[in-house]
Design goal:
mainly alpha, 4 strands
Amino acid sequence: MEGGHIFTKIAPSHLPTYLLIIGYPLYWIELYFIPDQGGHTSFLAWGLFGLICLWALLGCGKKIPAHLSGLWAKFKEASWFSKTIFSIGSILCAAILFISFFASLLPPHLLQEYDVLNYHITLPRQHIILESFALIPWATADLFLMPVDYALAPYWLATPLPNKIPQFIFLMGLLAVTARLFTYFRPDSVKPALLGVFAVAGSHFIGIQMGTAMLDIILCYLLLATLDSFLRKNHAFALIEFSFLFWAKPLLPVQFTVIAIIMLVVCLVLKKFGFAKTALIFNPAEENRLNFSYHKGLGKTCIGFIVLGVILAGPFITKSLIHAGTPLYPLGVGSLTITGGNTNKIQMQSMKDNAQEMIAFKDLYGAGTSPLNFIKHLWLIAVPNKGVNNIFDYPVGLPYLLVLGPFVIFVIKSLKDKSVALIPLFIIVYWITWWFGTQQSRFLYIPIVLMFLTVLTQKKCVTTVLKIGLILSLATVLLSVTRAHKADLFKPGYEVLRAKDKEILAMSDGVERKQLIEMSFHEVAFAEFAVDVRGGKRPFVMAY
């Protein structure tokens, strides 16, 4: 994928990005130019994505046999212990992915898929039915920044019941791009890449989202894919992937801007104190030192980022500005006055009240921000203390604990050597912004997976204890994934739905699609008709 043209050479690990590249413009085409069929979309997006996959397969088809032959040769040369570890790990990974794939064929219905039923699928579908992107007056979340959701809607809504297949594709992409990054930093061996995949797949807080409709795996993929594209000098792809990530949620632009400012200040301060070495990871080999040629064309990159921002975020920011007086709802509601909106006093007050409740969600998780709590949380986020969960939502798992100690040691050594390791610095700054934000473990996907990358690429860290620990982690995740989905696996999609969703589907027969039907709850992802919610649950329902 060298050179920056997004269709020149397609890496299979980056195929999930094409879901977004294809899906986002097609959503607007579906919305305004293709007649609505009860909130369903055509198979055009899937068809185009299938052609891209075929193109990628043809492009790398000749290399696959040679690559597999090379892997087999290295496997035969390995010790019996390594053969055993990698064989067991591969079988466990395959079993986890097998269950996750069939779970992804089912419609959203699980408890942890509440947000998907609440607004991720509901709002793009309601707009398709209404054939308009105008504000849905009862839906607070319609003020959110959600380009990734709308890019995936043409795939979710193409089947009779909404599916979760795109999320599985991004899971595969996350594992593939993880392996690809490991091979960038350790091109001399495939073992670190396999261990990296085992660490990601064996992390409990990632396993709990496998086969579900949640979006955090997608965001983690986008960050790692951005890094991989950047390192391999595919600047166009890196720009697209980071733009989708940056504008994915209302708080992400703020978080990433703060991270960039802090990192810049830290680097400048450390330079004043004699930190002359700059690298990407700990103790890098010479070829892995930061190459400042990456900064060529920075002006074009900034222009491209602005243009993509207008395309991806523009419609959502404009809607939020007009109706809520802020570009990033729920932040700063009413701080800007824009003419042209039709928001009345009741609705504006409801927007403000709901925004306050949403911001207060961050206090539902964690144990406060004191220094002592920070030290304690480094252990507590990994283990359960409330049934199978903990105060950070759900445990991150054993692989994190296996790399935490070495990561801290490498940070200290890097400081002693007066070397600035940029990826570890990003991990630390990201973690700090998480600590003072919402302390929910699923928002640590990005720094923990990057932690795997920085530690497991170091030869001295690949120990027997670590390998056995990763196998135990994979076995535990397989057990969790099996328990989570075994009751629903291989059932027809309709059978697994909640009772209220079955009632909604029954109502869809014979209803005038665009005539507003009043509902008392807002999780109406399965509605094939226009909905008006009155008296629903705050903060996701507005009075107007």
